[in-house]
């Protein structure tokens, strides 16, 4: 998430305004469908309140640099990552307050401050931009490397995290086929299914009282990477989308 914020430019914001309908569709998938899907799956599998809160947090955050890369590989439109990244500034704190406040203690104001710091402030720090991809990759590796809580998470949490990313991508892709061209369907599918799970782990660590809220983000990193990269490879192998 930090590395994504560093790579954003003013021109990226201007490009978003050129396709408002498509961007709003991706936005709705990221911050409407995914949080509710995470909540529904958590309830269906009977997760504890803390784990449910962690899953909803994953569903409430934006895509990151990994989704941007997979979208590029899949011949999609990387512009949508800008929309979901900006949306995190106000949508993630709002969703945490509305959906999670009754489950576990959460500092929604702290979530908002941390999100602003991670998204907006790095835009001005362009000197470190060459190192931003390395920072993102290393952060993800370190999180995945903390294998103990992931292995101990249990099958219910593993299934919930897996289905969150798979169902999110599948519904987004096939649900839009009748309304949008192939490029847009690919983009929304990847941007909806992939989440900046490392950022979710950071927010859980800083602003949630329950330790177990962090675990779903750690589990999600693995499944998000598997599902996202698989989508990118499959889309890459399909016939190239026609020019729009």
Automatic annotation (TrEMBL):
The chain crosses the membrane at residues 21-41, 47-66, 78-100, 106-124, 131-151, 157-176, 220-238. One of its GO terms (cellular component) is membrane. InterPro entries: BilAc:Na_symport/Acr3, Bilac:Na_transpt, Na+/solute_symporter_sf. Keywords: Membrane, Transmembrane, Transmembrane helix. PANTHER family: SODIUM-BILE ACID COTRANSPORTER, SODIUM_METABOLITE COTRANSPORTER BASS6, CHLOROPLASTIC-RELATED. The keyword Membrane applies. Gene3D superfamilies: 1.20.1530.20. It is found in: Membrane. Belongs to the bile acid:sodium symporter (BASS) (TC 2.A.28) family. This is Uncharacterized protein. The keyword Transmembrane helix applies. It comes from Emiliania huxleyi (strain CCMP1516). It is a multi-pass membrane protein. Its main location: membrane. It holds the Pfam family SBF. It comes from the Eukaryota.
């Amino acid at each position: 998430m930090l590395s994504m914020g560093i790579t954003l430019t003013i021109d990226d914001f201007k490009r978003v305004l050129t396709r408002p309908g498509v961007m709003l569709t991706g936005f709705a998938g990221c911050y409407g469908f995914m949080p509710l899907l995470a909540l529904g799956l958590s309830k269906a599998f009977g997760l504890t309140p803390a784990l449910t809160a962690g899953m909803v947090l994953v569903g409430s955050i934006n895509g990151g640099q990994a989704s941007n890369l997979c979208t590029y590989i899949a011949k999609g439109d990387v512009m949508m990552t800008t929309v979901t990244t900006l949306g995190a500034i106000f949508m993630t704190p709002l969703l945490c307050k509305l959906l999670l406040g009754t489950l576990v203690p959460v500092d929604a104001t702290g979530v908002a401050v941390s999100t602003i710091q991670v998204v907006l402030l790095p835009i001005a720090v362009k000197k470190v931009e060459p190192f931003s991809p390395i920072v993102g990759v290393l952060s993800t590796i370190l999180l995945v490397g903390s294998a103990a809580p992931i292995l101990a998470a249990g099958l219910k949490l593993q299934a919930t995290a897996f289905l969150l990313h798979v169902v999110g991508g599948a519904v987004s892709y096939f649900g839009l086929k009748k309304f949008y061209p192939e490029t847009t369907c690919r983009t929304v599918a990847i941007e909806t299914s992939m989440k900046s799970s490392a950022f979710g782990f950071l927010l859980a660590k800083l602003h949630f009282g329950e330790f177990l809220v962090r675990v779903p983000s750690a589990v999600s990193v693995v499944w998000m990477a598997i599902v996202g990269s698989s989508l990118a490879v499959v889309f890459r192998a399909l016939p190239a989308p026609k020019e729009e």
